[in-house]
Amino acid sequence: MAGGAVKYRHLSRDSAHRRALLRNLVTALVKQESIHTTWPKAKEAQRMAEKLITLAKRNNETSRRAAQGILFTPHELLPKLFGELRERYIDRPGGYTRVLRTEPKDTYSQAPSAILELVDGPKDMRFAMTAATVARDRALGKPHTRLTNKNITKTTRYRAQGKEELESLVEKITDLKLQK
Q1: What is d(CA 51, CA 94) in angstroms, rounded to the nearest whole number?
Q2: In whole angstroms, what is the distance from residue 29 CA to residue 22 CA?
Q3: What CA–CA distance (Å, rounded) separates 165 from 160?
Q4: What values do phi and psi take at 125, rounded to 5?
Q5: Could you tell me if 110 and 104 are in contact, meaning their C-beta atoms sit under 8 angstroms apart?
Q6: Which residues 6+ apart lie within 8 Å of 111 measured at CB?
Q7: What residues have CB less than 8 Å from 130, skipping those under 6 apart?
Q8: Each residue's pLDDT expressed in tens, for the chain with a length of 180 residues
Q9: Distance separating alpha carbons of residues 5 and 139, to the nearest angstrom
Q10: Within 10 Å of residue 114's Cβ, how many Cβ atoms?
Q11: d(Cα 100, Cα 126) in Å, to the nearest integer?
Q12: Which of 121, 143, 146, 177 is 20 to 30 Å apart from 11, CA to CA?
């Protein structure tokens, strides 16, 4: 039978190459907290990254060994994964990563590209865009839209001192005196 349900994207690679590719993407994500790649690769790496952070939240010897098997440079990244990232996501029930579609990276192939990022981190794109929107609304004297209020709630819910961080970023953006 042609078609049907597929458990994962094959990414035009054999299993060893696909696994190495995804491990490399997840290692880069943990190291840099934001990566730019094609959309299908980002969606598959998102699955593996979510599982990796869930392992870090368990914080036992079995989960450490499983995480060590996923990361390419575990000696560098296990302290970050089981330290900083574990503390950041300890109260969050899931959804540790976000995939944002972007313009194609390569003008030749026009492959759909995306940014894969860890939420509530220093490179959180939605947090920065929400702060910019709040600053713009205040400068124009407009009330926030329903979507802006929803984004404020989403970006500050699980972030420690979320409201204060948002206000400080709004102040920084306001000091830049951006144009309409």
Answers
A1: 10
A2: 10
A3: 9
A4: -65, -40
A5: yes
A6: 38, 39, 104, 105
A7: 148, 151, 152, 155, 166
A8: 466 777 777 888 898 999 999 999 999 999 999 999 999 999 999 999 999 999 999 999 999 999 999 999 999 999 999 999 999 999 999 999 999 998 887 778 888 999 999 999 888 899 999 999 999 999 999 999 999 999 999 999 988 899 999 999 999 999 987 655
A9: 50
A10: 22
A11: 9
A12: 121
How far are the Cα atoms of 40, 103, 166 from residue 36, in angstroms, in the given order? 12, 11, 25
φ, ψ at 149 (rounded to 5°): -60, -40
CA neighbor of 70 nearest in space, from 115, 14, 105, 22:
22
pLDDT of the residue at 178: 62
| Cβ atoms of residues 71 and 56 within 8 Å | no
For residue 114, what are the contacts with CB-CB under 8 A and spacing of at least 6?
36, 37, 38, 39, 42, 43, 99, 100, 101, 102
Amino acid of residue 69: G
Closest CA to 86 of 129, 122, 55: 55
How far is C-alpha 94 from the geometric centre of its chain's CA atoms? 12
